[in-house]
Amino acid sequence: MNLLTDSLPAGITIDGGFYPIVTDYRAWLRFSMLMQSDKTGEEKTVGMLSMLKGKLPPRFEETISAILAFYTGGEPAEEQGTPRAETHASRIYDFAYDSGLIYAAFFQQYGIDLQRAEFHWWQFKALFNALSEDTQFMKVVGYRGMDLSKIKDKTQREFYSKMKKQYALPIPQSEKEQLSKIEQALLNGGDLTGLI
Protein backbone atom coordinates (compact mmCIF):
# COMPACT_ATOMS: atom_id res chain seq x y z
CA MET A 1 0.00 0.00 0.00
CA ASN A 2 1.40 3.33 -1.06
CA LEU A 3 -0.11 6.33 0.76
CA LEU A 4 0.82 8.57 -2.16
CA THR A 5 -0.78 6.56 -4.96
CA ASP A 6 -3.35 4.17 -3.47
CA SER A 7 -6.70 4.85 -1.85
CA LEU A 8 -6.85 4.23 1.87
CA PRO A 9 -8.57 0.93 2.71
CA ALA A 10 -12.06 0.99 4.15
CA GLY A 11 -12.20 -2.70 5.00
CA ILE A 12 -10.51 -6.07 4.96
CA THR A 13 -10.81 -8.92 2.48
CA ILE A 14 -11.31 -12.49 3.69
CA ASP A 15 -11.86 -15.33 1.20
CA GLY A 16 -12.74 -12.83 -1.51
CA GLY A 17 -15.37 -11.12 0.64
CA PHE A 18 -15.05 -7.45 1.59
CA TYR A 19 -15.78 -6.52 5.20
CA PRO A 20 -15.97 -2.82 6.14
CA ILE A 21 -13.82 -1.75 9.09
CA VAL A 22 -13.73 1.30 11.34
CA THR A 23 -11.03 3.63 9.98
CA ASP A 24 -11.19 6.59 12.41
CA TYR A 25 -7.88 7.11 14.17
CA ARG A 26 -9.55 7.67 17.55
CA ALA A 27 -11.08 4.19 17.46
CA TRP A 28 -7.68 2.68 16.65
CA LEU A 29 -6.03 4.64 19.45
CA ARG A 30 -8.59 3.11 21.82
CA PHE A 31 -7.85 -0.28 20.21
CA SER A 32 -4.12 0.21 20.86
CA MET A 33 -4.79 1.14 24.48
CA LEU A 34 -6.98 -1.96 24.86
CA MET A 35 -4.19 -4.17 23.49
CA GLN A 36 -1.76 -2.66 26.04
CA SER A 37 -4.22 -3.02 28.91
CA ASP A 38 -4.62 -5.73 31.53
CA LYS A 39 -7.86 -6.92 29.93
CA THR A 40 -8.27 -10.63 29.29
CA GLY A 41 -7.53 -12.19 25.92
CA GLU A 42 -11.25 -12.68 25.43
CA GLU A 43 -11.96 -8.99 26.06
CA LYS A 44 -9.21 -8.02 23.63
CA THR A 45 -10.62 -10.37 20.99
CA VAL A 46 -14.07 -8.83 21.40
CA GLY A 47 -12.43 -5.40 21.03
CA MET A 48 -10.71 -6.53 17.83
CA LEU A 49 -13.91 -7.86 16.32
CA SER A 50 -15.76 -4.66 17.26
CA MET A 51 -13.55 -2.83 14.74
CA LEU A 52 -15.54 -4.47 11.95
CA LYS A 53 -18.77 -2.90 10.70
CA GLY A 54 -21.57 -5.34 9.99
CA LYS A 55 -21.35 -9.11 9.83
CA LEU A 56 -18.22 -10.99 10.81
CA PRO A 57 -16.16 -12.96 8.29
CA PRO A 58 -16.49 -16.75 8.53
CA ARG A 59 -12.83 -17.49 9.24
CA PHE A 60 -11.78 -16.41 12.73
CA GLU A 61 -7.97 -16.69 12.53
CA GLU A 62 -7.80 -14.96 9.14
CA THR A 63 -10.08 -12.23 10.47
CA ILE A 64 -7.88 -11.56 13.48
CA SER A 65 -4.77 -11.52 11.25
CA ALA A 66 -6.44 -9.09 8.84
CA ILE A 67 -7.51 -6.77 11.67
CA LEU A 68 -3.97 -6.80 13.08
CA ALA A 69 -2.57 -6.15 9.60
CA PHE A 70 -4.89 -3.15 9.29
CA TYR A 71 -3.74 -1.97 12.73
CA THR A 72 -0.08 -2.18 11.73
CA GLY A 73 -0.69 -0.23 8.54
CA GLY A 74 -1.08 -3.08 6.09
CA GLU A 75 1.93 -5.14 7.08
CA PRO A 76 1.32 -8.73 8.15
CA ALA A 77 1.17 -8.92 11.94
CA GLU A 78 4.16 -11.26 12.14
CA GLU A 79 6.35 -8.68 10.36
CA GLN A 80 5.28 -5.74 12.51
CA GLY A 81 4.83 -7.60 15.76
CA THR A 82 1.35 -8.06 17.12
CA PRO A 83 0.00 -5.73 19.76
CA ARG A 84 0.92 -7.34 23.04
CA ALA A 85 1.31 -6.59 26.66
CA GLU A 86 4.83 -5.22 26.66
CA THR A 87 6.80 -4.94 29.83
CA HIS A 88 6.77 -1.52 31.40
CA ALA A 89 10.50 -1.12 30.81
CA SER A 90 10.20 -1.62 27.04
CA ARG A 91 7.48 0.99 26.48
CA ILE A 92 8.61 4.46 25.48
CA TYR A 93 5.21 6.04 24.91
CA ASP A 94 1.63 5.47 25.92
CA PHE A 95 -1.24 6.97 23.93
CA ALA A 96 -3.33 7.52 27.08
CA TYR A 97 -0.60 8.86 29.38
CA ASP A 98 1.07 10.96 26.66
CA SER A 99 -2.13 12.25 25.08
CA GLY A 100 -1.39 15.89 25.95
CA LEU A 101 2.14 15.72 24.57
CA ILE A 102 0.92 14.02 21.39
CA TYR A 103 -1.84 16.59 20.96
CA ALA A 104 0.69 19.43 21.40
CA ALA A 105 3.18 17.78 19.02
CA PHE A 106 0.60 17.54 16.22
CA PHE A 107 -0.40 21.15 16.77
CA GLN A 108 3.23 22.35 16.93
CA GLN A 109 4.47 20.45 13.90
CA TYR A 110 1.46 20.27 11.61
CA GLY A 111 -0.93 22.92 12.94
CA ILE A 112 -3.44 20.09 13.40
CA ASP A 113 -5.97 20.26 16.24
CA LEU A 114 -6.60 16.59 16.99
CA GLN A 115 -9.86 17.53 18.70
CA ARG A 116 -11.22 18.66 15.33
CA ALA A 117 -9.26 16.56 12.84
CA GLU A 118 -10.78 13.59 11.03
CA PHE A 119 -8.15 11.07 9.94
CA HIS A 120 -7.94 7.56 8.66
CA TRP A 121 -5.85 5.45 11.06
CA TRP A 122 -3.08 5.07 8.48
CA GLN A 123 -2.90 8.85 7.96
CA PHE A 124 -2.56 9.36 11.69
CA LYS A 125 0.17 6.69 11.90
CA ALA A 126 2.14 8.30 9.08
CA LEU A 127 2.00 11.71 10.77
CA PHE A 128 2.72 10.23 14.21
CA ASN A 129 5.74 8.29 12.94
CA ALA A 130 7.14 11.45 11.32
CA LEU A 131 6.97 13.65 14.41
CA SER A 132 10.12 15.72 14.73
CA GLU A 133 12.60 15.58 17.58
CA ASP A 134 11.81 19.27 18.01
CA THR A 135 8.52 18.36 19.70
CA GLN A 136 8.43 17.85 23.45
CA PHE A 137 6.77 14.47 22.92
CA MET A 138 9.69 13.15 20.88
CA LYS A 139 12.18 14.58 23.38
CA VAL A 140 10.39 12.69 26.16
CA VAL A 141 10.33 9.51 24.05
CA GLY A 142 14.07 9.96 23.49
CA TYR A 143 14.70 10.24 27.23
CA ARG A 144 12.66 7.12 27.96
CA GLY A 145 14.41 5.09 25.28
CA MET A 146 17.93 6.27 26.10
CA ASP A 147 20.41 3.45 26.75
CA LEU A 148 22.39 4.89 29.65
CA SER A 149 25.07 2.20 29.38
CA LYS A 150 26.17 3.68 26.05
CA ILE A 151 26.81 7.15 27.47
CA LYS A 152 30.45 7.45 28.53
CA ASP A 153 30.39 11.01 29.88
CA LYS A 154 29.36 10.90 33.57
CA THR A 155 27.63 14.31 33.53
CA GLN A 156 25.59 13.42 30.45
CA ARG A 157 24.71 10.00 31.89
CA GLU A 158 23.50 11.65 35.13
CA PHE A 159 21.42 14.16 33.14
CA TYR A 160 19.78 11.47 31.01
CA SER A 161 19.23 9.26 34.05
CA LYS A 162 17.41 12.16 35.74
CA MET A 163 15.31 12.82 32.60
CA LYS A 164 14.52 9.12 32.23
CA LYS A 165 13.19 9.03 35.81
CA GLN A 166 11.36 12.34 35.48
CA TYR A 167 9.50 11.28 32.33
CA ALA A 168 9.08 7.57 33.12
CA LEU A 169 5.73 6.04 32.32
CA PRO A 170 3.72 5.02 35.37
CA ILE A 171 3.99 1.35 36.23
CA PRO A 172 0.70 -0.44 35.44
CA GLN A 173 -1.19 -1.81 38.46
CA SER A 174 -0.70 -5.43 37.36
CA GLU A 175 3.09 -4.94 37.25
CA LYS A 176 3.03 -3.21 40.65
CA GLU A 177 1.19 -6.21 42.09
CA GLN A 178 3.65 -8.64 40.46
CA LEU A 179 6.65 -6.68 41.78
CA SER A 180 5.09 -6.62 45.25
CA LYS A 181 4.67 -10.42 45.19
CA ILE A 182 8.29 -10.88 44.11
CA GLU A 183 9.47 -8.48 46.80
CA GLN A 184 7.48 -10.32 49.48
CA ALA A 185 8.81 -13.68 48.32
CA LEU A 186 12.39 -12.38 48.45
CA LEU A 187 11.96 -10.78 51.88
CA ASN A 188 10.32 -13.87 53.34
CA GLY A 189 12.59 -16.43 51.71
CA GLY A 190 9.68 -17.64 49.61
CA ASP A 191 9.60 -19.43 46.29
CA LEU A 192 9.82 -17.30 43.14
CA THR A 193 8.53 -20.12 40.93
CA GLY A 194 5.71 -18.79 38.81
CA LEU A 195 6.46 -15.18 39.75
CA ILE A 196 9.26 -14.51 37.29
TrEMBL record:
Mention any Pfam family matching this sequence: Phage_Gp15
Q: Which InterPro entries match?
A: Phage_A500_Gp15 (IPR009660)
- This one is known as Bacteriophage Gp15 family protein
Q: Which organism is it from?
A: Candidatus Avimonoglobus intestinipullorum
